[in-house]
Amino acid sequence: MNDFLPKGYTAPETQSHFMEFEEGQNYFRALSPAIVGFEWWVENGEGVKPNRVRTLEEVPEEFRAVDHRQGARHFWAFAVYNYQQEAIQVLVLRQQTIMRAIEAFSKNPKWGNPQGYDLVVEKTKTGRGVWDVEYNVIPEPKAVLDPGIAELAGQVSVRLEALFEGDDPFATEERPTAGTKAGRARRQP
User: Fold this and answer.
1) Predicted confidence (pLDDT) per residue in 120-165, tens digit
2) What is the DSSP string of 60-90?
3) Has residue 6 been placed in a domain?
4) How many C-beta neighbours within 10 Å does residue 106 have?
5) How sure is the predictor about 24, in pLDDT bands with cuts at 50, 70 and 90?
6) What are the percentages of helix, strand and coil residues in the chain, rounded to 5?
7) Residue 80 belongs to a domain with what CATH number?
8) How many domains are there within the chain?
9) Which domain holds residue 126?
10) What's the predicted TM-score (pTM) here?
11) Is residue 150, in this structure, part of any structural domain at all?
12) 16 vs 67, 86, 87, 110, 178, CA distance in Å?
């Protein structure tokens, strides 16, 4: 028997302020308009940290590389309700296929603003590499935001502009998490 960890030990689940796409279907509802800009990562004394600016002109020359893996990348960020985590989070999108799909839905008069319906992003690994991934975006039928989610969203302050300052967009208050249930059950694929 292994006496290193206590019997029955399981690691606690932690919840990030940021939504990350898991393999498979990822359900969410946009709760805010998007902020847009450019992002690049650099190492400092605390590890690798993102730098974000609003315009390409603000990006230092050395990070304007043609290879998107090395240079600054265009991003969108917006508040979402993540159904799998049952929490308000920030989604930072860098994947052009997802951005183009959401932009197309938002310009289509039958869909419009993605705050009016849920979105499903399906992530599929196509190979062994980090970059070997495909994304499909599926809009759910338009629906009024669940009252429990709306109430939760009203309790959580998300300041997206903090991303441009290198700060946490949730830093001003403690954030209700899965322990504070919205009125709707977890979405299942």
Assistant:
1) 999 999 888 767 899 999 999 999 999 999 999 999 999 999 999 9
2) -GGG--SSTTTS-EEEEEEEEEETTTTEEEE
3) no
4) 15
5) very high
6) 20, 30, 50
7) 3.90.198.10
8) 1
9) 24-165
10) 0.82
11) yes
12) 29, 12, 10, 33, 11
